[in-house]
Amino acid sequence: MTTPARLTAGRTVDRLCGKWISVLTNHDAPKSVDDIQSLLAHFLANVAGKTEGHWKELIGPVTALPIVLHPRSNWTVAPKAKSAELAAIEQAVEIVRGAHPYVRSPKPTS
Length: 110
Fold this sequence. Notes:
Blueprint: H1 17-26, H2 33-48, H3 52-59, E1 62-64, E2 75-77, H4 83-99
Antiparallel strand pairs: 1-2
Helix pairs in contact: 2-3, 2-4
C-alpha cells in the first residue's frame, strides 16, 4: 500500500486497515453499485471521521462496468473530493476493491 494520507481528523486510513480488511472479507458481497458506495462511505466514516452522507457525496457515483471488458474489477468511482480526502477515497477504493472486485454487470443495451 502507498504512503498513508493524512486526514483532517489526524488519523490515517492505514491505521485501521488490518481490522477493516478482515471485516470486509467477512462481509456479504455487495450486490449493487449502491452497496459499494455505502460500504465505501461506511468505511471512510469510521476510519476518517465525518458522516457517511458526507463521504457518499465526495465518493460520487459508482459505475458498474462489463466484466468482459474489465476482468480485474467491474466497478469504478468518480470522486468529487480534493487533496487528503481524495487520497483517503482512493485508498478506501483499493481496500474495498481487494475484498469485493465485482458487482452485477449492467445488462447490455441493444
